[in-house]
Amino acid sequence: MSTCNAYGACEAHADLTPMRIERRALRADDVAIVIDYCGICHSDAHAVHNDWGSTVYPCVPGHEIVGRVSAVGPRVTRFKPGDRVAVGCLVDSCQTCPSCEDGQQQNCTQGPTATYNGRDRHTRETTLGGYSESIVVREEFVLRVPAALDMRYAGPLLCAGITVWTPLRRYGVGAGSRVAVVGLGGLGHMAVKLAVALGAQVTVITTSASKADDARALGASDVLLSKDPKAMQAAASRFDFILDTIPTKHNVNPYLMLLGRNGVLVLVGALEPLEAVHGALLVMNNRSITGSLIGGLPATQELLDFCAEHNVLPDCEIVDVHGINAAFRRMQANDVKYRFVIDMASLRDVKVD
Ligand code: NAP
Ligand code: ZN
């Protein structure tokens, strides 16, 4: 066992503070990682604030982890010290159920182990995430960062990226697809970049008129203001696929109306009761509404390789650990372009009482 510096929350409405945490001694199939960067996901704020009612404190968030291998257990075959690696939202699963065998560990029937606020499968202790100097992770849940990917920007691919990549691939988005992305934040801006890279024609639907130029710079061919009912009406039945990243309860009917024949709306943000869906909007045009949870390990490696090959990188603002609480507040005030990434080198010099 070892200890390291981390940043975490001790209760729901407190700021994150520095703390010392323990990392387990290496099991035979473990990889020890020195963390260089960690992205700040909106889910980190949901967890810290106990929005989903399941947070165990102290809570150390962070599931967009990028770093270097420092040591490996005796049964590890794919990694050696010095390798550039990444860890996303999952650190373990049963490995035997049909979902795990299919590479969809996020849907493990026994419940996957989340990178933070999860339960270690051996000790039952609460897992602690990437706002920390180091982490120990089972080999199967460690990803390789291709040499062509800039480590500073790779982090947000591990959650924001894979969460949008999974439904884009599941629904075969590609050349000729008419795609709309609702909400231009961490997930949304990755969805625009990736859908464009796959050849789709992309529209951004936003509450923020000020983001229109950014949306076009990211590759969108059109921008719709969701607060403009006339513009929304004029876009009725226009899209094949809509990705809805709004983080809170909202009315999906104005977006469903925009789907054409057999169109699909994929919800990834609001994990709470929604306003009632109008049945007629589903029946007309054979529309569907569905959801999607992050993605499996093979798909995440595929995404990292795709982004290296196509030079697709998130737009990041890099902050040091002293800026974490300010970054949380700005993210919740919709003031980030488009992902905060913490430079973990700044955590090494923090003195914890
Ligand atoms: P984010 O960076 O804060 O972006 C969310 C965007 O949604 C904002 O930039 C804003 O875009 C729009 N928005 C915010 N509040 C809104 C409101 N009340 N009404 C309409 N639009 C609103 O968040 P994120 O990191 O992308 O995460 C988005 C959501 O996905 C979060 O709830 C997060 O927990 C969830 N998530 C889900 C999964 C999964 O597996 N399903 C994985 C990761 C994250 P505009 O300014 O363009 O309107
Ligand atoms: Zn996340």
TrEMBL record:
* A Gene Ontology molecular function term of the record: alcohol dehydrogenase (NADP+) activity
Q: Which family does it belong to?
A: Belongs to the zinc-containing alcohol dehydrogenase family.
A Pfam family of this chain: ADH_zinc_N
What is the protein's name according to its record? NAD(P)-dependent alcohol dehydrogenase
Q: Where is the Enoyl reductase (ER) domain?
A: 11-342
List the cofactors.
Answer: Zn(2+)
Which sequence ranges are marked TM in the entry?
Answer: none
Q: Which Gene3D superfamilies match?
A: Medium-chain alcohol dehydrogenases, catalytic domain (3.90.180.10), NAD(P)-binding Rossmann-like Domain (3.40.50.720)
Q: Which InterPro entries match?
A: ADH-like_C, ADH-like_N, ADH_Zn_CS, CAD-like, ER, GroES-like_sf, NAD(P)-bd_dom_sf
The protein's UniProt keywords, in alphabetical order, are: Metal-binding, Oxidoreductase, Zinc
